[in-house]
Every structure is written in structure tokens, then in C-alpha cells.
Write a structure and sequence with these properties.
single chain, mainly alpha, Farnesyl Diphosphate Synthase, two-stranded antiparallel ribbon, 16 helices
Length: 291
């Protein structure tokens, strides 16, 4: 069987997510809200990174899929909560109404909570992985999204909205808010393939550079793109006086910085012998995207 291209993985990931979310909940509206948030929309970048890292290292896609689903469930939960009025107050996501708009604020909050818990359940119950690998993955994901990762970065980002911070501090919070989960995707894919500690370190390096480049480009697109292309509101950074790379560096310099970070990620993959693999192609696609 031929190796799938990164874009061809989306249907397989959506099917795996649908299987995870085939829940017989006490209250059907909770399951509906969870499925609405997690299935169908978005690029599925994070689970594809997991799968491509595993496949490039000659791993089995079935071994990578539990981790791929887990990171997407976490990502979906984070977006549901980010869109709430108390956070980013966004009414659209992935070109459709946000979960709190379609299902109500209480159900959206609960759906996000449930998606996060389900992510860890999916990994813990993954019979395609041995117990030590599952434990390693659970620890990696927990660190990536907790107070030292995604949630901590989100808190720091909100605290910085009313002040001007340095580029160094901006990068530090973005390495948590956006970069930690993206980095974990590289690492989880390597773990699924049984990668050595040395290879995992190089994957982590590639992930750190990619994660920051992704956020820099996100800031750029908030200035240069439009809501229809992005599938979500744009211009919110300027409206909220947020610290962004275009503001701190200027738009052309921010674009160049993202390209430099991308090349550093590719150099780490080259050291792994993966410069022309699926993962490298996905790294380039994620940084050179138009939406």
C-alpha cells in the first residue's frame, strides 16, 4: 500500500474522530456539541503532523492514530473555549458558527471540558501501543497543554493585552500558547514509531521552530488576509491592541522571520534524514499557507 499524502489523511482522521465521538451520553446535546466542534472543520494540521512524523520514521499509522485523535480533541476543546465571549469573543470558526453560538454557552463549556478528558481517555485506552509508550504520551500531552504549556501561554497572552512587551517575552508566551502542542505532535508521532531519544530530541527541535513560525504567520495573516479565507474573524489583534510580530517587527520582517524559523525546522528534520519526507512537506505547507 502506498504512503498517504498529508492531505489524504484528513478523511482517515475524521473517521477516527467520529469513532471516538460515537458516545452514548446521558444528555445527547453534549455529544452533538462535541462532534460539532471536533469533526469536519479545520486543516487537521496537528493530527496530520503526528501521523506524518510516525510514517516518516517507518511507523504504523494505526499506532499514531490514537495520539493524532488526542491532539485534535485537545485542539478542538481549546478553540471552543477561546471563542467564548469571556475569551476571544469569536462567533465563527472554520467558516461556520462557533460552538457556543450553535449550542449555547453552558453546553460549549461542557463540550470543551469533555473533549479534553476524552483526549486522555483515547490515549490511555490505545491497545495498539504498549503501556510504557502510552504513559510517555500521556505525560507529553499533559505537559504541552497545562500551566507550563498551552493554558499557561493563553493566560500570559491575556495578561499582556494591556501592556507592551518585548519580542523575547512574546516568543516565550507563544512557545507555550501555540508552540507546545505543535511540538508535542512531532514528539508523539516519533513515540508512536518507537523513535530513539536522540531522534525525539531532533523532532522536538523541529516542532519548536515550526510552532513559533506558525504563530508568526498567524499574526501576519490577521493583517493581510480576510475573514472568508481564514474562516474566522480577522483584525482582532489590532482591535484588542495585542502584541504581535507585525507590530513589533514590521510586516516584511515578520514574514522573513517565519521563513527563517521554517528553515531551522527543516534543518532539524534533515539531521534525521527526513528533509524530503511527509513531515517536511507539511512543515512548509503550514508556514507558507494563505489562511
Amino acid at each position: 500500500m502506498s504512503r498517504p499524502e498529508p492531505q489524504d489523511l484528513r478523511a482517515q482522521i475524521d473517521q477516527a474522530l467520529a469513532d471516538c465521538l460515537a458516545l452514548d451520553t446521558l444528555e445527547p446535546s453534549l455529544g452533538d456539541a462535541m462532534r460539532y466542534a471536533a469533526i469536519g472543520g479545520g486543516k487537521k494540521l496537528r493530527p496530520r503532523l503526528v501521523c506524518c512524523a510516525c510514517l516518516d520514521l517507518s511507523g504504523d499509522l494505526a499506532a499514531a492514530m490514537p495520539a493524532a485523535c488526542a491532539v485534535e480533541l485537545v485542539h478542538a476543546y481549546s478553540l471552543v473555549h477561546d471563542d467564548l465571549p469571556a475569551m476571544d469573543n469569536a462567533d465563527t470558526r472554520h467558516g461556520k458558527a462557533s460552538t457556543h453560538v450553535t449550542h449555547g454557552h453552558p453546553e460549549a463549556i461542557l463540550a470543551g471540558d469533555a473533549l479534553q478528558a476524552l483526549a486522555f481517555q483515547v490515549l490511555a485506552d490505545a491497545t495498539s501501543l504498549d503501556a510504557s509508550t502510552r504513559l510517555q504520551m500521556l505525560s507529553t500531552l499533559a505537559h504541552a497543554i497545562g500551566p507550563m504549556g498551552m493554558v499557561g501561554g493563553q493566560s500570559a497572552d491575556m495578561a499582556a493585552e494591556t501592556i507592551v512587551i518585548s519580542q523575547m517575552k512574546l516568543e516565550a508566551l507563544h512557545r507555550q500558547k501555540t508552540g507546545a502542542l505543535l511540538t508535542a505532535c512531532f514528539e508523539l508521532g516519533g513515540m508512536a514509531a518507537g523513535a530513539s531519544d536522540e531522534d525525539l530530541a531532533l523532532l522536538s527541535e523541529a516542532g519548536r521552530h515550526t510552532g513559533l513560525a506558525f504563530q508568526v504567520i498567524d499574526d501576519v495573516l490577521d493583517v493581510t488576509s480576510d475573514a472568508q479565507a481564514m474562516g474566522k474573524p480577522v483584525g482582532a489583534d489590532a482591535a484588542n491592541a495585542k502584541n504581535t510580530y507585525p507590530v513589533l517587527m514590521g510586516l516584511p520582517a515578520a514574514q522573513r522571520y517565519a521563513d527563517d524559523l521554517m528553515h531551522q525546522a527543516l534543518m532539524a528534520l534533515e539531521a534525521l534524514g527526513l528533509r524530503n519526507g511527509l513531515l517536511a512537506g507539511l512543515v512548509v505547507q503550514s508556514v507558507q499557507r494563505s489562511h
